[in-house]
């Protein structure tokens, strides 16, 4: 489990590809401070397992499903990536629940400077539009952000100078691909409602009206 608060930018030092699999060697300093073999690290929002490490780098394996369904397949040596260690039980929870299980990818449409912020418009895969709401959370390349603009095919987030300087989103430009992970609570609610409807032949005790009445929407 992660929070979406990026700890540092790592650098892809080496990529070993074989078919639809990869081994990534990532240079880092902060996330390796207390790293143990088998620990989870989110790389651009993708939960991966450290298979080897030193104080200056760590290795992770990328399996075929992750290769095909995330932006990791487009990485190049020298590319910067967002890094976050798994959430500690005694730390502050600064973002939102992020699992590191990417739902899909989006493409940056445009970035617009607005006073001290940058508005970022990103394509929204239609099959995930039901998991988004205005002021709701989304993880973009592992960064916890708030949706403040939304259509069926596009979402907009606003990043402050700190986020632009400390994450890869500040470096990316129109046309670049980003990993998207939608809010876990939204996914569970949708799953519960869908299952309840299926099991009761269309009659469900959980509806949008029920959620509104009880303060969930």
TrEMBL record:
Q: Which residues form the Lumazine-binding domain?
A: 1-96, 97-193
Q: From the UniProt record, list the Lumazine-binding repeat ranges.
A: 1-96, 97-193
EC assignment: the record states: 2.5.1.9
Keyword Cytoplasm: yes or no? no
**Pathway named in the protein's UniProt entry:** Cofactor biosynthesis; riboflavin biosynthesis; riboflavin from 2-hydroxy-3-oxobutyl phosphate and 5-amino-6-(D-ribitylamino)uracil: step 2/2
Note one Pfam family from the annotation. Lum_binding
Which keywords describe this protein according to UniProt? Answer: Repeat, Riboflavin biosynthesis, Transferase
**Which of the seven top EC classes does this enzyme belong to?**
transferase
Give the reaction(s) catalysed.
2 6,7-dimethyl-8-(1-D-ribityl)lumazine + H(+) = 5-amino-6-(D-ribitylamino)uracil + riboflavin
What's an example of a GO molecular-function annotation for this chain?
A: riboflavin synthase activity
Q: Where are the transmembrane segments?
A: none
Its biological purpose is as follows: Catalyzes the dismutation of two molecules of 6,7-dimethyl-8-ribityllumazine, resulting in the formation of riboflavin and 5-amino-6-(D-ribitylamino)uracil.
* Protein name per Swiss-Prot or TrEMBL: Riboflavin synthase
**Lineage, highest ranks first:** Bacteria, Bacillati, Bacillota, Bacilli, Bacillales
């Amino acid at each position: 489990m992660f929070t979406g608060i990026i700890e540092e930018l790592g650098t892809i030092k080496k990529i070993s590809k074989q078919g639809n699999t990869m081994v990534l060697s990532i240079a880092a300093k902060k996330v390796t401070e207390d790293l143990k073999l088998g620990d989870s690290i989110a790389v651009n929002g993708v939960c991966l397992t450290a298979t080897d490490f030193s104080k200056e780098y760590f290795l992770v394996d990328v399996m075929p499903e992750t290769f095909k369904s995330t932006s990791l397949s487009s990485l190049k040596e020298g590319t910067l990536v967002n890094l976050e260690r798994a959430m500690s039980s005694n730390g502050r929870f600064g973002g939102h629940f992020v699992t590191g299980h990417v739902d899909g990818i989006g493409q940056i449409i445009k970035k617009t400077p607005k006073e001290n912020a940058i508005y970022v418009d990103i394509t929204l895969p239609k099959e995930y539009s039901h998991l988004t709401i205005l002021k709701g959370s989304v993880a973009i390349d592992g960064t916890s952000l708030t949706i403040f603009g939304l259509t069926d095919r596009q979402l907009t987030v606003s990043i402050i100078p700190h986020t632009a300087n400390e994450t890869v989103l500040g470096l990316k430009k129109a046309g670049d691909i980003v990993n998207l992970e939608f809010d876990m609570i939204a996914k569970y609610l949708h799953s519960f409602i869908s299952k309840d409807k299926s099991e009761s032949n269309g009659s469900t005790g959980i509806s949008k009206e029920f959620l509104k009445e009880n303060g969930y929407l």
